[in-house]
Amino acid sequence: MEIYLDNAATTRAYESVCQIMVKTMRQDYGNPSALHMKGVEAEHYVKNARQYIARTLKIGEKELIFTSGGTESNNMAIIGGAMANCRAGKHLITTGIEHASVYNPMMYLESQGYEVTYLPVDSTGTVRLDALEKAIREDTILVSVMCVNNEIGTIQPLDKIGRLIKEKNPKTLFHVDAIQGFGKMRLWPSKLGIDLLSASGHKLHGPKGVGFLYIKDRVKVHPLILGGGQQKDMRSGTENVPGIAGFGQAVEEVFENLEEKLDQLYSLRDYFIQRVCELDGVVINGFTHRQEGFFGPAPHIVSVSFADIRAEVLLHALEEKKIYVSSGSACSSNHPAISGTLKAIGVEKKYLDATLRFSFSFDTTQKDIDDCIDALKSIVPVLRRFTPGGRR
Amino acid sequence: MMFKAFLIKYGEIGLKGKNRYLFEDALMRQIRFALNGTGEFEVSKEQGRIFVDFTSDYDYDEVLERLGRVFGIVAICPVVHCDDNRWENLTKVVGDYMDAVYPDKAFTFKVESRRADKNYPKKSMEISADMGEYLLDRFPQAKVDVHNPQILLNIEIRQKTYIYSLSIPGPGGMPVGTNGKAMLLLSGGIDSPVAGYMIAKRGVRIDATYFHAPPYTSERAKEKVIDLAKIVARYAGPIKLNIVNFTDIQMAIYEKCPHDELTIIMRRYMMKIAEYIAKKDGCLGLVTGESIGQVASQTMQSLAATNAVCTMPVYRPVIGFDKNDIVEVSQKIGAFETSILPYEDCCTIFVAKHPVTKPNIRAIERSEFHLADVIDELVETAITTREVLICE
Description:
The complex is a heterodimer of chains A (392) and B (392).
Chain A: E1 3-4, H1 15-26, H2 37-57, E2 64-67, H3 70-84, E3 91-95, H4 100-111, E4 115-119, H5 129-135, E5 140-146, E6 154-155, H6 158-168, E7 173-177, H7 189-192, E8 196-200, E9 211-215, H8 241-254, H9 258-276, E10 282-285, E11 296-297, E12 301-306, H10 311-320, E13 323-324, E14 326-327, H11 330-333, H12 340-344, H13 349-352, E15 355-359, H14 366-386
Parallel strand pairs in A: 1-13, 3-4, 3-5, 5-7, 7-8
Antiparallel strand pairs in A: 2-9, 6-11, 8-9, 10-12, 12-15, 14-15
Helix pairs in contact in A: 1-8, 2-8, 3-4, 9-14, 10-14
Chain B: E1 5-10, H1 20-35, E2 41-46, E3 49-54, H2 60-67, E4 73-82, H3 87-101, E5 108-115, H4 124-138, E6 143-144, E7 151-157, E8 161-164, E9 168-169, E10 181-185, H5 191-201, E11 205-212, H6 219-236, E12 239-245, H7 247-256, H8 262-280, E13 286-287, H9 300-307, E14 314-315, H10 323-332, H11 336-339, H12 346-349, H13 361-369, H14 372-384, E15 387-391
Parallel strand pairs in B: 5-6, 5-7, 10-11, 10-13, 11-12, 13-14
Antiparallel strand pairs in B: 1-3, 1-4, 2-3, 4-8, 4-9, 7-8, 12-15
Helix pairs in contact in B: 5-6, 7-8, 8-9
């Protein structure tokens, strides 16, 4: 049996998600913009998905734009947000541990004459509020902070950040990259002072190729994709009906009894940490235990450094036992570049290349974790004998 | 579709005396293999030339591209058929052909004719002269130049008439399969696919061996090597790829031998294993991508040390090439983009900081003595557990 512990990279789609997607392609396959019945039927799926998602966020249905995924949502929020508000100023703020889909649009804006401040984080990966307070200026148009860090799982204090931003400069927009956080906690943008929020379908058992951007009523964002004027001109292109329907279905299923599921997932995480610490030379990056409110670790991510081990080799050794994990962050795993987050939280140099990310889903069982720990216990000592530097 | 056939010109194999038919048959076989799947066609030979006649629709550009990869072809001439040989019709077809192929009519030309059908009312000299006259009438800007024409128009009268004037250079070399078979040591790098290509160009069929070291090398590294074998196979024909698991041998060497000799000893065992498989499968030599002095294991002394374990000839077609020269060929054959994908191969995993560059064979043999009690069994296991794939 395979053990999939890479749920922060992507998740397995729910059966019900696949079913509704097939239906939108074989039976109700119309174009939602079409005037005839076939179009109206297809539009229902989009409306329903919009409804489910809006309900979980306690937002208005009109405040939701469907996109091609998290990356597009982040690009639209940052570049589209900066373009629409450039008259108010040309300063943006983000953190040093953002995902590339936030970081690279910021770099792009810098090349277009904007100024960007990158906030430091402490050793748990939590953004430094004192630095944020100092950074917000009269001409700051947007602050972008991720909800949950994708590499170590730290939750950012969104409530405090939102409050601080609105105190210092009520005109500054607050964007949250919630791609790892959506479905792992209750997120209510209006309570948190969030103006823009990105999420992605395939991180919570939906399909790949679909995501959304929440844009608060009356917040100005320029569309990045122009064309036939779908979604009120904000995101042209025929709606990805199968993707949107699947996303909606996944959200409906995930948010059912969410609190209960989260409690279970947190105990599973505690159990994993307790077991993995039975090995020698192991360091947990970020928080170990659940905290109150918007603080502490997300329930599904654990980052573990193994002294004297090359992460990639350990990853492949686990793979031979059909246990799938990720080194650092999956998105950057293909590049030899070393994790930005681990560096930013001050992980010792020898651990940078020695870190694996284990990430769980609501389907992960205690037995999966026991099997994974057993595998680690048999592999790690062998690898330490052979990995260069591991030998006396 | 204007062109219905291709006349294939071949050079070197025309020289081969009594064995000539072997070379021609091999070339026809390679052409059939290369064109497989492009449509219905027949390959025939007559009077020192090979014709490919299409009886169905086909994609002209694709056929030319595929023929351009068949070693032994010197030039490819796209041919137009004329079914109705009566002079009136023939002149019209030839005139239309010239009109379509040469938009600029200010050309110089010469007509060359052959008459396989001796009952045809005009002799070949008359055909050439009369056709020249017709073309001069039809295209007043054109001139005849019998010594140095820009266009040499060929007309061959058989049951049908063949008309051709274009000549597209082929790759040259000799048809694969006319010079036996060799075993290529294929890594994931730039050099070995080029070496395989160059040997294949001399008519040699290729088998290949790749050394895989899981978990130190990943599944992607293996995929990459399979992709490279497929790229070489586009020229060399189907390649039988042996994938040998080298991990245990590598570990044994790492544990028991001096680390600065690691790479040399490893390569010696790779050569031994490759030679064993080569002999078993009827290969007549080994092929490597080594180039003098490129890395520590490719100095003259190191090459001598690895060469010493083989009794078979080892061919190193890029031995005198600079890296730039190799890259150029790699780009030409379309392997470069794949070769530079960043997955580690087993040679780069355990390299010592300062590997020996001038190994002494005696010293190496003394070091290998430490492996004596385990190595035979490990080598045997590696050979018997190898995975065999046909890449085409």
